[in-house]
Amino acid sequence: MSDLIQLGAVNQRPKAPRPEELELKFSQTAIDQLNSLKTHYPEDKACILPGLWIAQREYNGFLSSNAIAEVAHRLNRSYAEVEGVATFYSMYNTAHEFC
C-alpha cells in the first residue's frame, strides 16, 4: 500500500505559481501576436487555444505551469481554466519527455 501512495506523490500535477512568483517570459513578438489575435475574437476566452500554441513555442515546446500561468494572466482567465484546456487536448505538451 505504501508503494501506491508513493506513486501518487510522484505523479502530482504541478502547482500554479502564485501571482507574485509569476515570471513573464513572452517575447515582444509573442505579446504582439497574442494582442493581435485578441482583436479577432469576441472575448479573451476564445484566445486560449492560440495563446497556448504561442506559449508552447515561447517555452521551448513545453507547457510548464509558468507557461500556463502566463497565458492565463495575459488573457485574464483563471489558471484552472487554461490548465484544463491545455491538459484536455493532446496537441499540447504538458509533460517533459525524456529520451
Question: Can you characterise this structure?
Answer:
There is one protein chain. By secondary structure, the protein is an all-alpha fold. It has one domain (27-99): NADH-quinone oxidoreductase subunit E (Arc Repressor Mutant, subunit A). It is 53% helix and 0% strand. The protein contains five helices and no strands. The longest helix has 11 residues, at 28-38. The N and C termini lie far apart (30 Å). The relative contact order is 0.16. The mean pLDDT is 87.
Descriptors:
single chain, 99 residues, mainly alpha, Arc Repressor Mutant, subunit A, 53% helix, globular
Write the layout of secondary structure elements.
Layout: H1 2-10, H2 28-38, H3 48-58, H4 65-75, H5 79-88
When the domains are counted, the total is: 1
The best one-word shape is: globular
Low-confidence sequence ranges: none
Q: What is the ordering of alpha helices and beta strands?
A: HHHHH
Structural class: mainly alpha
What's the total helix number? 5
Total strand segments: 0
Level-1 CATH class name = Mainly Alpha
**Largest sheet composition:** none
* Proper CATH architecture: Orthogonal Bundle
CATH topology: Arc Repressor Mutant, subunit A
Distance between the termini: 30 Å
Write a concise synopsis of the structure shown.
This protein is an all-alpha fold and 99 residues long.
